[in-house]
Structure formats: structure tokens, C-alpha cells
Amino acid sequence: MASLHTFSCNHLFSMGICGGSSNPAQAEHRGTIGKPQGGYGHHVGDGGWDASVLYERRFCDVRNRILSPEKCSQRAGQKFDCVCAVYDRILGDRLCLNVQRRLLVGIAYPITGHWIWGGGWLAKAGFYDFSGSTAIHSVGGWAALMGAAFLGPRIGKYRNGDTVAMPGHNMSIATLGCLILWLGWFGFNPGSTMAVDPNAIAHIAIATNTAAAFGGVAATLTAWLYLGKPDLSMVINGILAGLVGITAGCAWINVPNAAIIGIVAGILVVFAVTFFDNLKIDDPVGATSVHLVCGVWGTLAVGLFADGPTTGIYTAGPKAGLLVGGGFDQLIPQLIGIISVGGMTVLLSTIFWYALKVLLGIRVSPVEEAEGLDIGEHGMEAYSGFVKETNPGNRAEPGGYGSYGAGGRTKL
Question: Is 226 exposed, middle or buried (0-12, 13-18, 19+ CB in 10 A)?
């Protein structure tokens, strides 16, 4: 159902804002904002258009999934059967969930996406983001960060100034999900060529795989040294961090530099998790650390490591990066893009979350959070037979929102 909602919003609105061209000469693509092509009016049987719609629909779904982990775990503790563990737990009910999805996919992303991929002002300024470190991952990360800030932490997450670990129920399934995502990235990044170019696809695939592998190793070693143990959750996030980090420049960066990008991303994500915890921003699965922090890093990396169009990897694209002898010519547009897209997304997300908080409420009652939303939303337990802590008194924080009152949704 979530995928259906995303598809309808993307097809009717997002593609009409983001996916076309601002070039007046391309009259067949004129439509909504920036004069791109619209959801209605395309020619049935146009294979290029149909493929583009399907591909962009998956991009929109990714954005929603980035947001989902922040909200799921915070809305109902750890007992909602949600792959990403973010979205459903933050929102008061399905209405809020669907409204927020439509606002993000239908308004926030298409505007900034058009700036980058629709011939908008960032594209004209020389900003490059091949497969979406900023356009996809940072946008979702900024929206998730604002949602987590408005919602507040899960009950019992922070006590007496300490961070209380609330581990996931099944790390084996989490690891499997990571490996599935890793495999899926070979469609996500090489597919952004939107053409069957064997040389480009092969290079993008090996750069993507290299960054992921080195990100996982770097996060493992960093967690081992910094936290004292090779935390599996950090290993998973390190792999994903490498994938997010290489997404912006996978077509324009050589393989050794892809390894460096992955290493830096793997290190960053470990420290980012603890950084957000110190700010009392409850990020249940590290999604903000992975997608926002490493999305920003990956976008900057284009300005640092892009080979340049004369080296043989590509013939049209970003100028050579700072660390390969290209100066600041490419780094400056990348910085401008990061700041402008982040600012717009934070602004719109703040408006969306505040409106939902005031009008509908974004948090379930403390009792329902303790019991888990599987019961409240679906009338059943997701993990029947597991021993679970459902006593609200064991999770309450004195003087905080852990103080239990009447049932029903509370507008915090």
C-alpha cells in the first residue's frame, strides 16, 4: 500500500515537477514547475518515458524508506514489524503517515530534484550528483532529522544523561536487509546511466562495490577501537555509508578514490551515530547518520575526487576535483548545492512536521508505545512467543514524557 501511495504521488506530481527539462527548446517536455514533463499527457508506449517513470518511482520510494526508520522505532518502541524501523512509529496513525509521504514526495523532493536533474539552477551552476547522494539520500536524511527532532526520543532512551541501548530484535534479518540493499545498489547506481553503456555500467558497479566493502571494513575497525567491540549494527551502517557516499560520484571517480570515499564514510557514520545521541536526537537505526551525513560527504567527494572529463573515465561531467589537481572549481558548486538543498528541505520539512503535530498529533500514547504498534495498528503481535517488556513502568522516565496518562494519541 505504501508503494502504491508513493507511485501515485510520484506519477501525478513529482515527475511533473522534477523530471523534465527547463530548456525552452525541448517543448515536448514542458509541463509544471520549470517546464518539465507532467504525469499526464505523455504518449502511451513511449518506452523511454515508461522506464523513467518506473525508475523515478523507486527513487521516491527510497526517500520514504530513509524517513521510515526514524519514525517507526520512535513511535512504538521496538515492536513494530517495519523493515526500516522509522516511519510508522513516529506518526499518530495511517493518515499522518500517508500525508507526510505525499508532502515529501509530492512537494519537497521534486523542487530540489528539479534544481539538480531537471536543468534547474544548480545544474546550470555546475553542481553534479550522478545518482542521488544529495537529491535522494540527503533529502530523506534532512526530513528524517527534523521528524526525529519534533517527535522526541523513545521512552527510556535517555536516562540521567546516559544513552540507553535499544537493540533491534533480529540482527540476522538486519544483516540480510543490508546485503539485499548492497545488491540493489547495482541497479540504483549503474541504472542511473539510463542507457546500456557497458563501459560506464562496469565502472560504476565496481566503484560502488569498492566503496561499500571499504566502508564496512572501516566502520568495523572504527567501532572496535572507539566502542570496544566490532558492533554488527555499525558494520551494517558502514556498508550502507560507503554505498551512499559513492552514489554522487560513482561515474566520475576512479576505483582507488572510491575506496577512500568508502573508508571516510565508514569512519564518519560511527562518530555520527554517537554525535546525534549526544544531541538527544533518537535515530533508531542510524539512518540520519548514513543518509544525511554520508550523503553530504559523497556530494563533497565529487568536488574532491572527480577525475575530470579528459582522463578517459567520462567525456562530459564535473571538472577535476581539488585533490586530483583541479582546484576549487568543482568543489564550490558542490558546497552550494549541499547548503541550498539542505536549507530548502529543512524549511519544508519543518513546516510539514509542525503542521502534522498541531493538526493531527505525531505520537501515540505512552501505553501504546510500550505495548507496540502491532497490537494498536493490526490487532496482533509481530513476534508471538518472544518475551517482551511491556510494563510501562519499566520504560518510564520520571518527569519526562515517560509519565503515563490516559490512553489515546498525545500531542507532544
Answer: middle
